[in-house]
C-alpha cells in the first residue's frame, strides 16, 4: 500500500526498520567495547533524542551489554542558514551530572560539517572522562570541514536535506519515524 507522506516531504530515504537495524548494529559494537563496565550516553539535543532512546534500549538487549547504561543530555546550537551550519557552536544546556572518571559515549543523530561533534569532543574531553567515544547514526561525509573521529556509525546519509527521526526543518518533521527527503521547493532558494 502506498504510504501517505506529510506535506513538504518528497520521499522516504531510510525506513524506520533500517534505522532500527542501524541502532542495533551500533549497540552491538558498543556492547563489545564496554562489556562489564558502566557507561554514560550523552545525547545531543534536540536531534539525537530518538536515537539516544532507541540506542539505549538496543544496548539493554545486546549480548554482553554494559552492566549499567546511564543517560544524560547536552544541548548545543550552531549558527547558520537553513542548509548548513556556520561552524560556530554554542552550549545551550550542559549535562546534569559530571562525567569525570566515567566512560562516555556522545550520541548524535547526524554529522555533516563536523563542527558540532568537534566542539563536543573537545569540551567533554577536557573534563577527564575515563574514555570518550562518539556514536553517530547518520554520516553525511560530503561537506566535512573539520577532521573528527566517529567511533560508531549507523548509516551513510544521502547528500540531501533530510528530516525525520529527530532531524527538523524549522522545528518541523522531527517526529517522523523514518528519514525523508524534503521537497526542494520547501527550502529557500
Ligand atoms: C544538527 C545535528 C547535529 C549537528 C551536526 O543539530 O543534530 O548536532 O546538526 O551538524 P554539523 O556536523 O554540521 O555540525 P542542529 O544544530 O540542527 O540542532 P538540533 O539538533 O537542535 O536540531
What do these coordinates show?
The termini are far apart. The chain is built from 3 helices and 9 strands, in the order βαβαβββαββββ. It is of the alpha/beta class and 189 residues long. Helix 1 packs across helix 2. The chain has helices at residues 16-33, 49-61, 115-125, and strands at residues 9-14, 38-45, 68-80, 85-93, 103-111, 131-139, 152-156, 162-163, 179-182. It has a single domain (19-159), classed as Rossmann fold (3-Layer(aba) Sandwich). 1-O-pyrophosphono-5-O-phosphono-alpha-D-ribofuranose binds next to strand 2, strand 3, strand 5 and helix 3.
Tell me the series of helices and strands, N- to C-terminal: EHEHEEEHEEEE
Cα(first) to Cα(last) distance is 34 Å
Strand content: 25-35%
Mean pLDDT: 94
Report the principal-axis shape: globular
Low-pLDDT segments? none
How does the major sheet shape up? Answer: 6 strands, mixed
Bound molecules: 1-O-pyrophosphono-5-O-phosphono-alpha-D-ribofuranose
Classified by CATH, the class is Alpha Beta
Topology:
Blueprint: E1 9-14, H1 16-33, E2 38-45, H2 49-61, E3 68-80, E4 85-93, E5 103-111, H3 115-125, E6 131-139, E7 152-156, E8 162-163, E9 179-182
Parallel strand pairs: 2-3, 2-5, 5-6, 6-7
Antiparallel strand pairs: 1-9, 3-4, 8-9
This protein binds 1-O-pyrophosphono-5-O-phosphono-alpha-D-ribofuranose.
Residues 44-48, 77-78, 85, 108-116, 168 line the site of 1-O-pyrophosphono-5-O-phosphono-alpha-D-ribofuranose.
Amino acid at each position: 500500500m502506498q504510504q501517505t507522506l506529510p506535506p513538504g516531504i518528497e520521499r522516504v530515504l531510510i525506513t524506520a526498520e533500517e534505522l532500527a537495524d542501524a541502532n542495533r548494529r551500533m549497540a552491538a559494537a558498543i556492547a563489545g567495547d564496554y562489556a562489564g563496565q558502566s557507561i554514560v550516553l550523552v545525547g545531543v539535543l534536540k536531534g539525537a533524542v530518538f536515537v539516544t532512546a532507541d540506542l539505549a534500549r538496543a544496548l539493554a538487549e545486546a549480548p554482553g551489554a554494559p552492566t549499567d547504561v546511564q543517560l544524560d543530555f547536552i544541548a548545543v546550537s550552531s549558527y547558520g542558514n537553513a542548509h548548513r551550519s556556520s561552524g560556530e557552536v554554542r552550549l545551550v544546556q550542559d549535562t546534569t551530572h559530571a562525567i569525570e572518571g566515567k566512560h562516555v559515549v556522545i550520541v548524535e543523530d547526524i554529522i555533516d560539517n563536523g563542527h558540532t561533534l568537534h566542539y563536543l569532543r573537545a569540551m567533554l574531553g577536557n573534563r577527564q572522562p575515563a574514555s570518550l567515544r562518539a556514536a553517530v547514526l547518520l554520516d553525511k561525509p560530503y561537506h566535512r570541514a573539520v577532521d573528527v573521529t566517529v567511533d560508531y556509525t549507523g548509516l551513510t546519509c544521502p547528500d540531501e536535506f533530510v528530516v525525520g527521526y529527530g532531524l527538523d526543518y524549522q522545528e518541523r518533521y522531527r517526529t517522523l519515524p523514518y528519514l525523508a527527503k524534503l521537497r526542494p521547493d520547501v527550502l529557500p532558494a
